């Protein structure tokens, strides 16, 4: 038996996806501020402190502490709940903020807990708790790409995360190790051991262009990877946003390249 609200859903789209949640009367879904897309008549929206799960207690102080933890992950103090107050079925939908995919996570089948990158949570059934997960290893916190604090999603209901590009799911056997670019880790189950490893080699370190560290994930467990981290996308866009609008701007061939493609100024 689930203690969280049971919700049905459908995911639409390819590159810019949205998830449509179907609610029975009195069922509630909680979402990040700004994720809302549309809702049927009869669905009531309410802004709440934290995630509304009341996992830490129902008092004002406990709610304030729960909401305050969200600030450490770069999220808002508030979240939004959507409750079906009418009869029959009603639908509410949430959209991903940038090109990528939405991952549906059934926490009941995943040990009740998922650890994910700080900005990946989209929405979940009411009762699911969205908190913080501290990286206990110094090296992982400093060089793991996500810092010392990640998000944790706990409960036995459905939760939805989003990530950039295409999503790959890998099931790791006990002792199996996967080396990943630190920005490509979206989420993993609590049985995964997450660490970092130095790339090694002078040429790899100085000229490889892939950073100094790998993320190493050791099984057993499941990990979700993204092909386009938002940080990588932002870096590519910013490289074209400077004077001249070319990645090569400032190099010896930058001006010549502008002339050859008709962009000489």
**Overall mean pLDDT score?**
78
Lateral strand order in the biggest sheet? 5-6-3-10-13-8
How can the largest sheet be summarized?
6 strands, antiparallel
CATH class: Alpha Beta
Rough shape?
globular
**Secondary-structure element sequence?**
EEEEEHEEEEEEHEEEEEEHEEHH
Rg over C-alpha atoms, rounded to the nearest angstrom: 21 Å
Structural class: alpha+beta
Which regions have little confidence, pLDDT < 50, spanning 5+ residues? 138-147, 201-209, 247-265
CATH architecture: 4-Layer Sandwich
Tell me the total number of β-strands. 19
The total count of helices amounts to: 5
The CATH topology label is Double-stranded beta-helix
Query: So, the CATH homologous superfamily?
Result: Mitochondrial biogenesis AIM24
Helix content: 10-25%
As for the number of domains, it is 1
The end-to-end distance, rounded to whole angstroms, is 68 Å
If you had to describe this structure to a student in words, what would you say it looks like?
The protein is α+β, with helices and mostly antiparallel strands and 265 residues long. It has one domain: 4-Layer Sandwich (Double-stranded beta-helix). It is 16% helix and 41% strand. The chain is built from five helices and 19 strands. The chain has helices at 60-72, 138-143, 202-207, 230-239, 254-260; strands spanning 8-12, 18-23, 28-32, 36-39, 43-49, 78-84, 90-95, 100-106, 113-116, 121-125, 129-134, 149-154, 158-164, 167-172, 177-181, 185-189, 193-198, 213-218, 221-226. The strands form four sheets. The chain has a six-stranded antiparallel beta sheet. A six-stranded antiparallel beta sheet has the order 11-12-9-16-19-14, with helices on one face. Strand 1 and strand 2 (18-23) form a beta hairpin. The N and C termini lie far apart (68 Å). 35% of the residues are buried.
């Amino acid at each position: 038996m689930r203690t969280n609200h049971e919700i049905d859903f459908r995911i639409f789209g390819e590159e810019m996806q949205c998830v449509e949640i179907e609610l029975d009367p009195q069922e509630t879904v909680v979402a990040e501020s700004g994720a809302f897309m549309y809702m049927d008549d009869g669905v009531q929206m309410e802004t709440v402190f934290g995630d509304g799960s009341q996992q830490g207690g129902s008092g004002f102080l406990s709610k304030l502490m729960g909401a305050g933890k969200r600030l450490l992950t770069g999220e808002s103090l508030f979240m939004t709940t959507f409750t079906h107050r009418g009869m029959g079925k009603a639908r509410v939908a949430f959209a991903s903020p940038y090109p990528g995919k939405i991952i549906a996570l059934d926490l009941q089948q995943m040990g009740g807990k998922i650890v994910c990158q700080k900005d990946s949570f989209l929405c979940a059934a009411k009762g699911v708790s969205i908190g913080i997960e501290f990286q206990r290893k110094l090296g992982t916190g400093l060089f793991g790409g996500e810092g010392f604090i990640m998000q944790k999603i706990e409960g036995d209901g459905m939760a939805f995360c989003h990530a950039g590009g295409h999503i790959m799911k890998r099931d790791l056997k006990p002792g199996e190790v996967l080396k990943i670019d630190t920005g490509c880790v979206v989420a993993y189950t609590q049985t995964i051991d997450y660490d970092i490893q130095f790339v090694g080699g002078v040429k790899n370190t100085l000229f490889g262009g892939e950073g100094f560290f790998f993320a190493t994930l050791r099984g057993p467990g499941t990990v979700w990877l993204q092909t386009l981290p938002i940080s990588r996308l932002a870096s590519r866009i910013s490289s074209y946003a400077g004077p001249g609008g070319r990645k090569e701007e400032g190099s010896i061939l930058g001006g010549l390249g502008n002339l050859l493609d008709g962009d000489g100024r």
